[in-house]
Automatic annotation (TrEMBL):
Gene Ontology biological process terms, A to Z: DNA repair; DNA replication; error-prone translesion synthesis
TM helices/strands, residue ranges: none
Designated name of the protein: DNA-directed DNA polymerase
Top enzyme category: transferase
Domain annotation DNA polymerase Y-family little finger: ranges: 4-76
InterPro entries the record matches: DNA_pol_Y-fam_lit_finger_sf, DNA_pol_Y-fam_little_finger, DNA_polymerase-Y
Record PANTHER family: DNA POLYMERASE KAPPA, DNA REPAIR POLYMERASE UMUC / TRANSFERASE FAMILY MEMBER
Keywords: DNA damage, DNA repair, DNA replication, DNA-directed DNA polymerase, Magnesium, Metal-binding, Nucleotidyltransferase, Transferase
Domain of life the protein comes from: Eukaryota
Taxonomic classification: Eukaryota, Viridiplantae, Streptophyta, Embryophyta, Tracheophyta
A GO CC annotation given for this chain: nucleus
Catalysed conversion reaction: DNA(n) + a 2'-deoxyribonucleoside 5'-triphosphate = DNA(n+1) + diphosphate
EC number: 2.7.7.7
């Protein structure tokens, strides 16, 4: 299934960069050259292919039936997890809720 392949590719790219996102966007281009963009903002950060597929499938099913020529997925609203201050044994860390990536 192509949606599973898209979810896996996006997940791999996100994990390489250490990213988790809260907004998942699905972009569809129809055979009549119409462009449809649908998005969902989630309560939690996601980066796994299973989560991406779950939410992308829901967005796609809402558009069916449709004849497609292109389909794509992306994420935004990335979680931050970085070091703000380091002084010998003192570490202060700023962290937004982050998924398993």
């Amino acid at each position: 299934m192509f949606a599973a392949d898209l979810a896996e590719m996006l997940s791999v790219d996100m994990q390489k960069e250490g990213l988790s996102g809260r907004t998942l966007t699905l972009k569809l281009k129809t055979t009549t050259f119409e462009v449809r963009t649908r998005a969902v903002t989630l309560q939690k950060y996601i980066c796994s292919s299973e989560d991406i597929l779950k939410y992308a499938s829901k967005l796609l099913k809402a558009e069916l039936p449709v004849s497609l020529r292109l389909i794509g997925t992306s994420t935004t609203q990335y979680g931050l997890n970085f070091l703000l201050y380091e002084n010998s044994s003192i570490f202060i860390k700023f962290s937004m809720e982050k998924g398993p990536c």
